[in-house]
Amino acid sequence: MVSAVRVCADTGVCVGSGQCALRVPEVFDQREEDGVVVVLDEHPPPSLREAVHQAVLGCPSGALRLEDAD
């Protein structure tokens, strides 16, 4: 069984590159005024977990992380 995860973003660290929103637009977006990440779905479905994991790893500023939601 896949454990539940929670997506967290540190908006103070985000540089607005948009890589996360490009990779997983179902989970990430950007604020129009400054491009900072917005988490649309803190608890993504299992079908998106690998893509979200890759987005977290690919974040150039390290603003994204996954936490165990259990």
From TrEMBL:
- Which organism is this protein's natural source? Dactylosporangium salmoneum
Keywords on record: 3Fe-4S, Electron transport, Iron, Iron-sulfur, Metal-binding, Transport
Name the InterPro entries on file: Fe-S_cluster_ET
Required cofactor names: [3Fe-4S] cluster
- State what protein this is by name: Ferredoxin
Listed Gene3D superfamilies: 3.30.70.20
